[in-house]
Amino acid sequence: MIIWLASYPKSGNTFLRSLLASYFYSENGVFEFEQLKKIEQFPVNENFEKIGININDKFEVAKNYIKAQEEINKTKKLSFWKTHSSFCKLYDKYNFSDLKNSLGVIYIVRDPRNVVSSFARHNSKSINETVELLINDLATGNEKNEVEVYLGSWNFNYNSWKVFKNSNRYLLIRYEDLINDTENVYIKILRFINDLSKLKSSININKIRKVVKSTTFSQMKKLEEEQGFEESKVNDLGKTVKFFNLGPKNNWKNLLSSQIIKKIENKFNKEMLELGYL
């Protein structure tokens, strides 16, 4: 069954995946980029090609999200899937997923003021362009010619996944807490997964500490410098934009104008108060 690792882009999803991949898919708890391939992304072309859907027909793709997930769940094994999609009705008609095919969600959220600067750099776009994307309830995106992802605005994306709260299948994690108190928040995540999946295995504290040590931002940045990282982007000038840039040191106070800050805080006031960002 699918456990979603959901987030708006540039909110810490890669850090979350790295923690889980090195715990569940390594023997010694030492992180390697190769482990991230065990946690795939949804939706991508392959999900639909496997079930005979024409990926160039976006309506047929949207219509078959559930069918694609039923194919994934045929293994009857626990699997983690990254998504930046909102949990929404595609074209106001087709569900992104349902409770039958989704065991639960770990939603990671980040202060939108820091998301803006990080996302702008990642996409080689201006801060102004990126803010307009964050506040657009109908925003879509795609990576490397893959099928469209229905992002929605930052707050629509965040609110949409609360549908899992009533069934106790929802865990909200703030990126800032995961960075500042990694071990304790990480244990909380693993306990949530154990409860969801009814795993009987005890949590391996020694392995957790090895994972935490090998997935610090500086360690990941060093790995990217040594090996490259396939999730980095190439800009319009043909230059690779490093995926790991400022991370926890990214500070909106030094990067955004007062007008931009006001625009973000006004648009997302309710959610930012709820999350303790204001």
Q: What composes the largest sheet?
A: 5 strands, parallel
The fold-level CATH name is Rossmann fold
Q: Give the class-level CATH name.
A: Alpha Beta
H and E string:
EHEHHHEEEEHHHEHHHHEEHHH
Separation of the first and last Cα atoms? 36 Å
Radius of gyration based on Cα positions: 18 Å
Low-confidence stretches: none
Number of domains: 1
Strand order of the largest sheet: 2-3-1-6-7
Structural class comes to alpha/beta
Describe this structure in words.
The mean pLDDT is 89. Helix 5 packs across helix 6 (127-134). This protein starts with a strand and ends with a helix. The protein has 278 residues and is of the alpha/beta class. Helix content is 44%, strand content 12%. The strands form three sheets. The protein has a five-stranded parallel beta sheet with strand order 2-3-1-6-7. Strands 4-5 form a two-stranded antiparallel sheet. Strands 8-9 form a two-stranded antiparallel ribbon. The relative contact order is 0.17.
In short:
By secondary structure, the protein is of the alpha/beta class. It has helices at residues 13-24, 45-49, 58-63, 65-72, 112-123, 127-134, 154-160, 175-180, 182-197, 205-214, 217-227, 252-255, 258-267, 269-275; strands at residues 2-6, 40-41, 79-83, 89-90, 94-95, 102-109, 170-174, 233-234, 240-241.
